[in-house]
Amino acid sequence: MHIPLGVTHGETAMFKTREMAGLLIFCNDCDYFIAHRYDQFSQLEDVEVNAYCGGELQLREKRAFSITRFSCDRYSFRPLRDFLLLVQMLVLLKRHAPEVVHTITIKPNLLGGLAVRIYNLFAARKCRLVMMTAGLGRIFAGGKGWMRRLVVLGLKAALSGGDIVAVFENTADRDHWVSLGILKRSSTRLLPGAGVDPHKFRFAPGRAASPLRILFASRLLKSKGLELFIDIATEMACRGIVAEFIIAGRHDPKDPDSVDLSEHHLPANVSYIGPCTDMPSLLSSTHVVLLPTVYSEGLPRILIEAAATGNVLIASDIPGCRRIVDHGKNGFLLPVRGGKVDFEGIVGAIEALVANPDLVKRMGAAGNAKFYEGGFDIASVRTAMKAILFNKPANQWEM
After folding, report:
1. 128-144 pLDDT, tens per residue?
2. In degrees, to the nearest 5, what angle opens at C-alpha 199 toward C-alphas 193 and 204?
3. Whose CA, among 39, 63, 133, 389, lies 20 to 30 Å from 193?
4. Cα torsion through 95, 96, 97, 98, rounded to 10
């Protein structure tokens, strides 16, 4: 189903440009695309952008380019349905004849990559393929062995020839794909996350850190550490440590890893506010973002947003989190052993912050400095992404 969204005056002029490049995007979920990837492409000049996303399509405002729903099931592989999705992708390739195809998340990477390879066998003008993988995901991090092998074989086939690049958010994920023989290191690029707008997520120094307000803002998943977050809050209350714990996020009943908080008895020091529609305001009112995740993260956007706004970062010591958290400077990295995050380490970090409000301010300021030094702002990410999409010279963010 196509959703006509309209164009601005500037975009009308753009559509009249005869030599305009075409960018076709496939993503498995519209909500994820809007929240994490849309801004990377919303200001591309002289580029006609068309995006096709799975999930529910509930656009509440006009967008700079067409976003259309297509039948991509993000939770399972079903041979017949996925074959039909592959056919649909081929039809869309023929319709748009893009210069670049950008696939985001595992199923679009796999099926979109195969569709591009088939299309390029017959097309008069071949298209460039740019894959994006924001974290290894469940298939690589803990999926069934046969499924992982099948996906690896499919990705090898999709990436075996042509003008192709795969984009990662941390070096460990990149090196893992290379070690599996999916592609060569020379065909990879690194991107500093999804990009955050500092005009929206403003640094708010000097806010009083008593009581300390600690935020969990993510999908409500066990693997993201939601239940551990609740356990930490319970422990703080038992120790008489005064702090407020806030949970923001959405329960997805289709996801077996999702937690339904209506079935949990939350301690008195925990507030669940549901899905947040104004994250900048929420982060300007908190002091700490806690993400005790064991999920195979790429580079968690919430940590970048938290750094931009001057929150202290407490996160698991995994590759994606290490790119934004400098232990002891702008936050704390907690060891992960046997699939569990160091509980006492989190407790100790929170106790230290409660006891020392000046430490909260110093770490918050260091996080904001890290935000700019690392090129995590949206302007830097847009520049890097455009260079990758259209095969420009390597830029300062590639490593």
Report:
1. 999 998 877 666 766 56
2. 95
3. 63
4. -160
Closest-CA residue to 103 (of 114, 94, 112, 91) = 112
Kindly provide the b/e burial profile for residues 291-303, where b requires at least 16 CB atoms within 10 angstroms of the residue's own CB.
bbbbbbbbbbbbb
- Answer whether the bond into residue 211 is a cis peptide, omega within 30°: yes
For residue 63, what are its two tokens?
Answer: 């967008």
Distance CA 272, CA 113 (A): 40
**Core vs surface per residue 316-354: b (16+ CB within 10 A) or e:** bbbbbbbbbbbeeebbbbbebeeeebbeebbbebbeebb
**Which amino acid does the sequence have at 263?**
E
Q: Each residue of 113-128: pLDDT tens digit?
A: 999 999 999 998 999 9
CA 309/CA 303 separation, integer angstroms: 10
pLDDT tens figures, 63-110: 889 899 888 876 677 788 889 999 999 999 999 999 999 999 889 999
**Alpha carbons within 13 A on the beta-carbon side of 208:** 2
In one-letter notation, the amino acid at residue 393 is: P
d(CA 175, CA 181): 10
Among 308, 69, 115, 342, smallest CA distance to 228 is for: 342
Instruction: Classify residue 132 by burial, with Cβ atoms within 10 Å: 0-12, 13-18, 19+.
Output: buried
Contact 234, 76 (CB under 8 A): no
One-letter amino acid for residue 376 of the chain: F
327 Cα distance to chain centroid:
22
Helical ranges in the chain per DSSP H: 9-15, 30-32, 79-96, 106-107, 113-122, 137-142, 145-158, 171-179, 226-238, 279-284, 301-308, 319-322, 343-355, 357-373, 378-389
**Residue located via tokens 């700079």:** 64
Q: Give CA–CA dist 311/288, Å, rounded.
A: 5
- Which residues have a Cβ under 8 Å from the Cβ of 71 and sit 6 or more positions away? 54, 81, 84, 85, 88
**CA dist list (Å): 77 to 66, 111, 133:** 27, 11, 18
The answer for residues whose C-beta is within 8 angstroms of residue 33's C-beta and 6 or more apart is 25, 27, 51, 53, 67, 104
